[in-house]
Amino acid sequence: MNNKKILILPGDGIGREIVAEAVKVLHWLGQRPGLDLTFEEALIGGSAYDAMGTPLPDETVARAKSADAVLLGAVGGPKWDSLAFSLRPERGLLGIRKALDLYCNLRPAQVFAPLLDASPLKREVVEGIDIMVVRELSSGIYFGTPRGVETLPDGRRRGFNTLTYSTDEIERVARRAFEAARRRRHKLCSVDKANVLESTALWREVVSDLGAREYPDVALSHMYVDNAAMQLLRHPRQFDCIVTTNMFGDILSDEASMLTGSIGMLPSASLGDHNALYEPIHGSAPDIAGKGVANPLATILSVAMMLRYSLSAPGEAERIEQAVNRVLAKGLRTADIMQPGATQVGTVAMGDAVMQALDEEN
Ligand code: NAD
Question: Which domains occur in the chain, in start order?
Answer without folding.
Answer: 1-100+275-362 (3.40.718.10), 111-131+139-260 (3.40.718.10)
